[in-house]
Amino acid sequence: MAIRKAMVAGNWKMNGSLELVKQMSDAINDVKSQEMDIVLFPPFPLVPAMVASGVSTGAQTVSENTPGAFTGEVDAQLIKDLGATYVLVGHSERRSIYNESNATVAEKFARAQQVGLTPILCVGESESEQENGQTEQVVAAQIDAVIEKLGVAALKDSVIAYEPVWAIGTGKTASPEQAQTVHKFIRDKIASLDSNLAQGLTILYGGSVNEKNSELLFAQTDIDGGLIGGASLKAESFTAICNSAKGTV
Ligand SMILES: O=C[C@H](O)COP(=O)(O)O
Asked: Any idea which residues are catalytic in this one (predicted)?
């Protein structure tokens, strides 16, 4: 069974520098604690420096393919060999800008696990889907693509991040109650197939999380931490968010 643990993950997207790796790793090494996982996802070229800094490191995406003629793609084994331990799959920017389908995301999830990386499966609905009351349907389909390909047991060694697309980078956070409702839906859905696995699963919330709203979000029963974008580029904000996740799971 997976071990449910508080986690704060910082996705730098296409931002960052060697200087920021140093600054953030110094700040994180001061707030690290056994009771939670802190992971940073810098752009690929900064992965070795982040690993060397001692902060748990992940990649922001990965190829679904094994090595071959795929110009510009990065193989999961190479990411693993560099010392990274996690990879984001299905971030909404990958889905919308790079047309990644649910099926492709499931293939990336599979390839990550094949080499021993822990995938963080990102799910979430767009603004119009939310307005049309389709949140649960969209999130269920995104998770089902992985379950159909690999079986529910594959979720044991993974993390799920719920990120409503309308809350990403917009300053419009889901309310703690709104987010909790979707997190409970996700856990209940997985529990209907394997209740131990669902209880052990870490489920993160993402979308305009900052040091002012993180405490109330993380206090919700089914929210085990956050996937942080903008605020993960500022040491003071990110470490405050990390501190607010301590002792919440
Ligand atoms: O991966 C992180 C999310 O896209 C959230 O980004 P944000 O915190 O800037 O809204």
From this structure: 91 (electrophile), 163 (proton acceptor)
Q: What is this structure's pTM?
A: 0.97
What is the best residue among 163, 212, 232, 237 to mutate for testing ligand 1's pocket, by most ligand atoms within 8 Å of CB? 163
> How far from 244 is each of 180, 197, 219, 239, CA to CA, in Å?
17, 25, 9, 9
Q: Is any atom of ligand 1 closer than 6 Å to the C-beta of 54?
A: no
In short, whether 226's Cβ falls inside 6 Å of ligand 1 is: no
Cα-Cα-Cα-Cα torsion 183, 133, 102, 92, nearest 10 degrees, comes to -70
pLDDT digits (tens, 9 = 90+) for 178-223: 999 999 999 999 999 999 999 999 999 999 999 999 999 999 999 9
Whole-complex ipTM: 0.98
Could you tell me the pLDDT band of residue 225, with boundaries at 50, 70 and 90?
very high
Q: Which of these CATH numbers, 3.40.630.30, 3.40.50.1010, 3.20.20.70, 3.40.50.170, describes 6-245?
A: 3.20.20.70
Q: HEC states along 133-160?
A: CCHHHHHHHHHHHHHHHHCHHHHHHCEE
- Asked if pLDDT for residue 1 goes beyond 60, the answer is no
Q: Of 61, 89, 96, whose CA–CA distance to 150 is shortest?
A: 89
Structural Rg of the chain based on CA atoms: 17
Quickly list H helices, the chain.
18-31, 47-52, 76-81, 92-97, 102-115, 127-131, 135-150, 176-191, 195-200, 214-218, 235-245
